[in-house]
Amino acid sequence: LNKVLGKAVYTSNYQLGGTQIMYANGVTHKTVDNDLKGVQAILNWLSYVPAKKGAPLPMLLTPSRKLLDPLERTVYDPRRGPNPESTYDPRILLTGAVDAIGKWRGGLFD
Fold this sequence. Notes:
- This protein has helices at residues 2-5, 18-24, 35-46, 92-95, and strands at 97-98, 104-105.
- The chain is mainly α.
């Protein structure tokens, strides 16, 4: 807001509503209780970033050196049912539908 108006309208995010407003509006992605937890959250986020430009993405390994989240795995999508080749109608995202196990999955407007 300061940049848009070209003058200092506010000095901190607390003057615009604080973390309760910023987090709910998506401006802030994580809130913590203190600085130590803030640093831990930053380090956790950085663990998903390569160590340097062009380096491969970090892979999480189990103690036996297997991938924690294997690249090739079966993923069950309740909207498609047990057959992943079945046609998926994107309108279901808006309207909602009953999934393959009979459970109602609400849409974006529910």
